[in-house]
Design goal:
Length: 145
């Protein structure tokens, strides 16, 4: 089984592009599984660390929508939530779960914007020990859902 980690963005269009990228993979869907990961800066629970979505439900609707869409495509899905710095948590979960691939949604930012505000995507690309696919916005700039 080829496992893909998808960190959940708060944006429906970016999440839609990530799900479409998985659906469009040139492999049988039964050969792929997906772990959806939502990262909170602070998790308001006594559970701490990374927890199953079954144990914590205060996540954006976009996560449920992504899960439903992948399940309709017969892709096994596990949903997790975690607390901490997104860059660090994504790389840590990828390592801990020994995923084969990470897929993140890119967004257009100026070089100055990247320098001033940093980039979770850039950090994941530079620090993950597995391949990272950055799913870009569409060429026309509107994004595909």
């Amino acid at each position: 089984m080829y496992e893909i980690l998808i960190p959940i963005p708060n944006d429906d269009a970016r999440m839609g592009r990530l799900v479409t990228a998985v659906e469009d993979l040139p492999v049988r869907t039964e050969a792929v599984s997906v772990t959806l990961l939502y990262v909170f800066e602070e998790l308001e629970t006594e559970l701490g660390g990374t927890v199953s979505l079954r144990e914590y439900s205060d996540v954006p609707d976009v996560m449920a929508e992504a899960r439903e869409r992948l399940e309709r495509a017969d892709v096994p899905v596990e949903a997790l939530v975690a607390e901490g710095s997104a860059e660090e948590v994504i790389v840590s979960v990828a390592d801990d779960r020994a995923v084969d691939h990470v897929a993140v949604a890119g967004r257009e930012r100026s070089p100055t914007g990247k320098a001033l505000f940093g980039s979770v995507t850039q950090s994941v690309v530079l620090n993950a020990d597995v391949p990272v696919t950055v799913v870009p916005e569409s060429v026309d700039g509107e994004g595909a859902a």
